[in-house]
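Put briefly, the fold is written as integer tokens. The lines below illustrate.
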Amino acid sequence: MWLLRHSYSAAIIVASMASAITPCSAETQLLEQISPIGYSVKAGTSVLHKADLGASTGGASYAMRLFAAKNQVAPAFGAFQILYDFSGNPDGASPHSPILVGNGQLFGTTQDAGAYGDGTVYELIPGPGGYTEKVVYSFEGSPDGNTPDAGLVADEAGNLYGTTTFGGSGCIGGRYGYCGVVFKLTPSASGYSESVIYSFQGPPDGEDPNSSLILDRSGALYGTTSLGGTSTCNGGCGTVFKLTPNGDTYDESVLYSFQNDGSDGVYPWAPLAFDKKGALWGTTSIGGAYSTGTVFKLSPSGSGYSESIIHSFGEVGSSDGNNPYAGVTIDKSGVVYGDTQAGGNPCNNTGIVGGCGIVFSITSKGSRYDYRILYTFAPTEGAQPLAPLVAESGGVLYGTTSLAGSNGRGVVFKLAPGKAGYVETSAYDFTGGADGAFPKSGLLQIRDGIYGTTSAGGSADCGGVFRIRI
């Protein structure tokens, strides 16, 4: 059985680092430059943390306890454990993607390092002494792709599918060189073999896929590219694409090209989500009425899709969110949840410009949609969520923030509805030591806890894979 709950892929910061800085230390130094919160890193932090969770409230689907109202320091989750600590070479560095679980193993990607410096796909194999890491594939750049920033999806046969933001064989001389690929890893007795099932060609085709894929029942793959398409943005405004199986190959079609028209969204970084009627939901990082991003919906219409903007995020400085880099999550009842990287409360004394970010919901009300801000982050609670949420029954939400928190290194949080709105009922604050730092990926929730990755921290500052008991 394969489980994939959400993905995130967004490299929102581009900077030039000195050649003396290693790939693993570069990300930490860059993020510390933009978020100088001033908290000290607790070096030598224990890998396994225990917490007294107090008395039960009863009725919780997991043994979580509800505590004080918003803006008080939330209690810790259960036991926190690092399952794997990346070293850079040859095992990879800076995982930005969530975890995929299949038959007990954990699969994921690292966007950096590996044997050729272009990222890896890895497998964590459970054993009596913990998890052992195996590099499933190391990317070489061209023609196979480089910088796998997104997570994986699996079909019923155990084939793995993913994207790389760059590399491939199309779009030579494009904005960032080669324009990225969709790849397939096919299992065999001796391991996995990689094949490129599509190389993006640049405008009017897509360019630079930063998000993971979703599968429909026919085996077709859907995703977004942050650039490319038919509109007039620099490098194109982005696309939604589909790859349809055709024997041993795939036929690519652009389902929608975002338009630079002052109302449509621009630059989608996030994965898509299906609703019960087969419509595709997603977000764009900018564009819309105030150039701060949108939530969009693509509805099947005849032989194609028609786009509608469900929400345009508010002006910079307003209480609304800005710049969603995460995709949306749709729960069993059809409620849509998401978060934004900016907007909401000012992130005072953090060096973060534009607000700490929000969590929102969208509910269908007949022919209209009800948009609500569920939670607004304060600096001590976390800032800049970059990944989709996990939605549990009863409206309980789990997620990560890539920055801020009590130690300034990011947070895993749980939000639950209360009498006066949503409250943060539990949190884990990363220290930047052995436990990792700057989680950019979404979470996977399975029976024994929630799993995720950190993009930095650990013994080599290359990030790691963690589990938190809930």
User: Anything to note?
Assistant: The longest strand covers residues 130-138. Residues 99 and 162 are 13 Å apart (CA to CA).
